[in-house]
Design goal:
The protein has two helices and four strands. It has 81 residues and is α+β, with helices and mostly antiparallel strands. The protein has one domain. A four-stranded antiparallel β-sheet has the order 2-1-3-4. The longest helix is centred in the middle third of the chain and has 14 residues, at 36-49. The mean pLDDT is 81.
Length: 81
């Protein structure tokens, strides 16, 4: 899943994800982001959606798919590539 890392005006972190861009594997996500026009589109989209935030990085985020309810769910990926 394509995920952004952003910093807000007071230093807070935001990790918006692109729900329309879900890949089956990390390799597929990384291959898509290696294509410069796609990576630029992802960066421009998130900057337009969150104009008060500074874009730090766009990459591939991964959630723990074994989550069973032991911890509160988080919108932040457990791994960022």
């Amino acid at each position: 899943m394509v995920t952004a890392v952003m910093t807000g005006p007071q230093g807070e972190k935001l990790n918006p994800r692109y729900e329309a861009m879900i890949f089956d594997t990390l390799a597929e996500c990384q291959q898509a982001l290696a294509y410069e026009p796609f990576a630029r589109l992802m960066a421009e989209s998130v900057v337009l959606a969150y104009p008060a935030y500074l874009l730090d990085q766009v990459g591939c985020g991964a959630w723990d798919m074994d989550y069973r309810g032991e911890q509160p769910f988080s919108d932040t990926p457990t791994e960022f590539y």
